[in-house]
Amino acid sequence: MTEKSMRKGNWQTTIFLAIIIILTYLSSAIAEFNFIDGIVTIPHALGWMFSNLMITAESLERLPTILNTLLETLFMSIAATTTAAVVSLFLGVFGSNTTKVNGVLSVVARFIASVSRNIPVVAWALVLLISFGQNSVTGFLALFAGTVGFLTRAFIESIDEASKSSVEALTATGATYFQVVYKAVLPQCLPQIISWILFMIETNIRNATLIGILTGTGIGYTFDLYYKTLNYNAVALVILCIVVTVIIIELFSNYIRKVIQ
Fold first, then answer.
1. How far is CA 226 from its chain centroid?
2. Are residues 217 and 108 in the same domain?
3. Closest C-alpha to 169, from 179, 156, 159, 157
4. DSSP secondary-structure letter at 53?
5. Structural domain count, the chain
6. Which helix (H) or strand (E) holds 222?
7. pLDDT single digits (tens) 27-44
8. Residue 160, Cβ neighbours under 10 Å: how many?
């Protein structure tokens, strides 16, 4: 690397850092956020957490109720993810350049994925809340809508990365479209597809907690109820249950990924 190119790179880095600093300062000023005040309050916040978020014998009596709502959230997340995965698989096959039937279906599939993926799950929940009210169906549909967009995009990319030689070989032998997809494409993409589905199950379990606060269902509603009644001991138990569940699901998902790879 020449001295001139090194100087150019250093100037670009300096300018980039200066822009980041200026944007950070302007954002803080507009939001009226003070970094120093925020740092100073950290010890006080930690002290409050350790003094209030303590699990007691009284809060443990609520464990059956908490576990029941946690299971409701867990099953809703799995159901929404697996249902969305089936829809996304068809959209991914139609949207991929490797397996697309025609340009129109490909554009439609990619458009659905783009719209669904770029609308946050919370926004989906708020929109559906108006039509379906506060119930588990609203939570299921919100998770389903958000998952379809993400998985469709992920499946399209996975299918596009599949080897085209096997597709061309089967096509040359006179295989039908669905035979090509089933025999040549899906076997190559299956590990990635399963991995993406497991990832979305983990993500939706976290999202479902927030969705439950809006829809009045599941562990999110339980958390919101205890929080609004200032029952911080029960809140601590809810948080612990959520964290343990997410860790277990993540460990299980990592094990499955190792097996299928």
1. 26
2. yes
3. 179
4. S
5. 2
6. helix 218-228
7. 777 877 777 777 888 888
8. 15
| Tokens describing residue 140 | 């299921």
User: Tokens 């709502």 map to which residue?
Assistant: 69
What is the chain's percent helix, strand, coil content, to nearest 5?
Answer: 85, 0, 15
- Distance, in Å, from the CA atom of 95 to the CA atom of 86, rounded to the nearest integer, reads 14
DSSP code string of 90-153: HHHHHHSTTT-S-HHHHHHHHHHHHHHHHS-HHHHHHHHHHHH-SSHHHHHHHHHHHHHHHHHH
Residue 57 covered by a domain? no
Q: Examine the domain organization and report whether 252 and 180 are in the same domain.
A: yes
The position carrying tokens 């343990």 is 244
- pTM (2 d.p.): 0.78
Burial per residue of 115-149, b for 16 or more beta-carbon CB atoms within 10 angstroms, e otherwise:
ebbeeebeebbeebbeebeeebebbbbbbbbbbbb
Cα separation, 73 vs 164, whole angstroms:
40
Note whether 131 and 239 are same-domain residues: yes
| Structural domain contains residue 18 | yes
Cβ(118)–Cβ(52) below 8 Å = no
Range of the domain at 89: 62-260
Residues 6+ apart with CB under 8 A from 96: 106, 155, 156, 159, 160
* Cα gap 152→160, rounded to integer Å: 12
If asked whether residues 165 and 233 sit together in one domain, one would say yes
**What's the Rg (C-alpha) of the chain?**
24
- Per-residue pLDDT reduced to its tens digit, 45-100: 788 778 877 888 888 888 888 899 889 888 888 999 999 999 998 888 888 887 77
Q: Tell me if 211 is assigned to some domain.
A: yes
Cα(96)–Cα(152) distance, integer angstroms: 10
Residue carrying the six token digits 């302007």: 26
